[in-house]
Design a protein that fits this description.
By secondary structure, this protein is mainly alpha-helical. It has 14 helices and no strands. It has one domain. The chain starts with 18 loop residues before the first helix and ends in a 25-residue tail after the last helix.
């Protein structure tokens, strides 16, 4: 089914295109021409460059084996890259509510799921560029190590998987929030919590609690997979259980968005725990 997207938009007259595509194109224009995606990519470039510089020049870190450098750089690219998708998606619907631009989208004669798909795909668009930017640093630090190509391939797969999960998480929170401040706060809080297990002592990670954290935290599972596979050189067959968390969390979040939350998208968010106190005089659309 097709429809216009926003009044005054040059996409609004393209009635021969599906709504999700129109939303996707409009969001790309807003993100890239508006500069938000570029600003986040500049931040990504600075963080990745600093990480690579420290690994290459620090007297202690420079003694790190090339394979560990490869893993650290790829993990840094994944960690910083999915942050971009999380920030963009966390502001997607809550920002539309604050700007009073959500109603034209909801009035389009199309399922709300299509609107969510368009915004979701647009929020993912910076990730491939971010990962490609990190490649020269990884190649340089690898010093010709044979693990480079398979590590980059696995990094692309696992990075895409976790980026999809955290971008979806941001979108889900945004659907249920009336305020960008709340949706960004909740998204960033979960992001920080997902990074914490990597900072815990190795002794703790070897305990039952540590194993549980690895089983439910996709970022920690990906880190363990890369370290075990390319530093400890364990066979892939022994590492498959580490993929259960990123795959399971991604499937769960996508299901929650497109099977439950998106079809129930309203002009007013319906989850009080994610909204600021507001007047209830407005009624949801649809």
């Amino acid at each position: 089914m097709t429809a216009s997207v926003r009044p005054g938009s040059d996409l609004a007259d393209r009635s021969d295109r599906p709504v999700w595509w129109l939303v996707f194109r409009q969001e790309l224009d807003d993100l890239w021409i508006g500069g938000k995606a570029l600003n986040l990519l500049i931040l990504f470039a600075v963080l990745v460059s600093i990480t690579a510089f420290l690994l290459a020049t620090n007297s202690e870190l420079s003694l790190t084996p090339p394979r560990l450098m490869i893993v650290v750089m790829i993990q840094s690219a994944i960690t910083f890259g999915l942050f971009i998708g999380l920030v963009i998606s966390a502001e997607s619907f809550s920002g539309e509510r604050e700007r009073a631009t959500l109603e034209p989208l909801l009035l389009a004669p199309a399922g709300r799921r299509q609107i969510a798909i368009g915004k979701f795909l647009a929020a993912l668009s910076p990730w491939p560029i971010a990962y490609l930017y990190s490649l020269p640093f990884v190649v340089t630090l690898a010093q010709g190590d044979l693990a480079l190509v398979p590590a980059l391939a696995w990094g692309a797969v696992l990075g895409t998987l976790t980026t999809v999960a955290f971008t979806g998480l941001g979108l889900l929170v945004s659907i249920w929030s009336n305020s960008s401040r709340i949706s960004l706060f909740v998204g960033l809080l979960i992001y920080i919590l997902a990074l914490l297990p990597a900072q815990l002592p190795g002794e703790f990670q070897a305990t039952t609690t540590g194993a549980i954290l690895q089983a439910i935290d996709p970022l920690e599972a990906v880190r363990q997979f890369m370290v075990s596979g390319f530093v400890d050189v364990l066979p892939v067959g022994e590492l498959w259980p580490l993929l259960y968390a990123p795959i399971g969390v991604t499937v769960l979040i996508l299901g929650a968005i497109f099977l439950y939350a998106a079809p129930r998208l309203r002009l007013e968010a319906e989850t009080p725990g994610l909204t600021w106190p507001m007047s209830r005089g407005r009624e949801g659309v649809g």
